[in-house]
Amino acid sequence: MGNITDTCHDSEKIDFFYNNSGKPINTEWNKRDYVIVTLGMIVCFIVIFSNFLVIAAIFKNRRFHFPIYYLLGNMALADLFAGFAYLHMMFHTGPWTIKLSLSQWFTRQGLINTSLTASVLNLLFVAVERHQTIFNVQLHSSMSTRRVFIIVLLIWLVAIIMGLVPQMGWNCTCHLSKCSTMAPLYHRSFLIFWAVLNLITFSIMLAVYTRIFLYVRHKGRQMSQHTSTTRQRETMMNLMKTVSMILGCFVVCWTPALVVLLLDGLNYDKSLVLGLEKYCLVLAECNSFVNPIIYCFRDQDMRRTFKEILCCNWSQSHKNRGFSEVKFHTVEQENGKSRIPKAIERSNGTPLIHASSEDIPERSD
User: Fold this and answer.
1) For 311-344, b where at least 16 C-beta lie within 10 A, e where not — what string?
2) pTM higher than 0.70 for the full model?
3) What's the chain's Rg over C-alpha atoms?
4) H or E stretch including 340?
5) E-state strands within 133-280
6) Domain locations in the chain?
7) What local confidence, expressed as pLDDT, does residue 111 receive?
8) Which of 17, 53, 197, 246 could make an SS bond with 184 (beta carbons 3.0 to 4.6 A apart)?
9) How does residue 21 score in pLDDT terms, banded at 50, 70 and 90?
């Protein structure tokens, strides 16, 4: 038995590893396979369409040419990649799995790892950016475009590395006793690392958004005591609702999958892991089309741009230049909108958007 465990089995077929881990592999299609593939493809097309719409809207409307929207655009790109990765998986799952070579199987799983890593990292950087912007009382982030693109490259570099790590050696082809159940070629220690890393990232995001939420609630109480401005109250409530939606959807979509991955890495009950696997992964993928709804569909300018794109109107947004009616403003930003012209430059002093007089509210004094 020691020789079997310590010998590498790179020349074996997929079914060898599935049989070793105890995960059933179908050779013929059944109703469950059809349901899973059909639902998976529907989710994939929704993810691809919604995130493509977000990317097109950010590219089309010059009001969105700010660091926060570049990050949101990259998040949409990551989720778009996730849609294609899952679509690729739908054509290489079920009875098709047994026909895959080891490299094809690693590629299938690597695409999923890359896409999910990029999505999570984008969420984290968006949270940090919003935290800095709100607490520094800025209309938009002071990050330069160069810094934003460095962050984007860093996100994709880390995501690609995470996708390649198992294929580069952190697998169980030479340690069959350490093979996981959900991913029969993955080492259980890698699943533990992957799950814990994402849970830590989730905890950081939770801490950041909780701090924002407490700040917003505190400012909301001050506003109710010192001012009766309806616009300010509405802005504060919109931000509180957005933060709550972000936290709630992230917890609902990601926690079950991370917990199941961790249980599999700890070699917990195989029947429980296999029973929850498909549904947890699909639920995690749903976060890829929930994100555009949370971050963008609550923005009136974004909704108008969506309508223009769907109606094939590609000129209107370029003519009307100004600031997006973004729902992430702070109280001080609402009070300081008369000073908007001073805030429309990037950190390097280059004008990004030239606001017209119609975009600048009149002073109350």
Assistant:
1) eeeeeebeeeebbbebbbbbbebbebbeebeeeb
2) yes
3) 24
4) none
5) none
6) 14-311
7) 93
8) 17
9) confident
